[in-house]
Amino acid sequence: QWAEVLYMRNRFFTALLLSNVIFLTAATVSVVGGGVNDFLKARCSGRDFPFPIGVFIILVYWFFYATFGTAASGYSLWRKEQYRRKVGYPIAPRHAHVDMLFWFLPWMLSIPISTFLLWLYSDTGNSCRLLGDHICSVSGCCILLLLLTSVSLIVAYLRLVPSLTTLMTSMYKSIGTFTVFIMLYLVLTGVFTRVFQVRLFSASSDYVVRNSTSISEENSGPKSVNFFTAFYRTFLVSLNIIDSSMLSPTDDRIDMSITHMIYILFVPVLFLNFAIGILTSVVTHVHEHSPENRYLLILSVAEFSEMILSPTRSAIRKL
Fold this sequence. Notes:
Helices cover about 80% and strands about 0% of the residues. By secondary structure, the protein is mainly alpha-helical.
């Protein structure tokens, strides 16, 4: 009953945050589209193109919203720690800090992402020179990260709806677990990308150049492949989408075939099967402890709301 009362006290604040995140998600999806890529391509090619003012407004809103949330959360955590030391209350366990981090992390990530996108769209001269042909891909990935942060917050708040608690909790914990696997997957793919970049892609480009009749003998040196292109090709290799002509001939063919087999075996196959097994275990655990999870969520959100609202209430009382 105490947990329910504490939650009901701040339910308006929770609903306000949820509606704000939903608005940000819908506005980002509706404003950011193919026009952004047209703008970047036109500016990078030296042509004049009107600046997408709607994208600028959304990114500025993202920046101030994330900055306010991060600053308020940081100040509230500091204020709470000061009060804890004053009364001599024992420090919270580590898992409590980890649970609160999932509320703060989307806000903290949104600050550098929105700042980078504002620079990307406003200073197209330097951004085009730095990123080259990959500028549209980088822009799309950053927009996708912003949407992922907003979706994670939506799922986090929808966990409080009684009829959706089990489903959203399973999804939320699965997102956190799968994010760790994605980071490991990117690291492993990056390692194999470097191997393929030096031994496979550059060697195959050199083979194509040396065997082309339209290219002179003096231009038959190895053609370098940048890391982003090599990473994309390595990702295609993980999907088993690879042309045999990419493998360089004679001695390197056996060597790179073995490397390709090791990559396919350890990265996509074993790695994804292990991830699916862990996610299944997470969902099973959530279903077994559904009532307890909801009350823990209520306490977590109530603490989160009290931490942010308490400085505001104190300021209002002083006024």
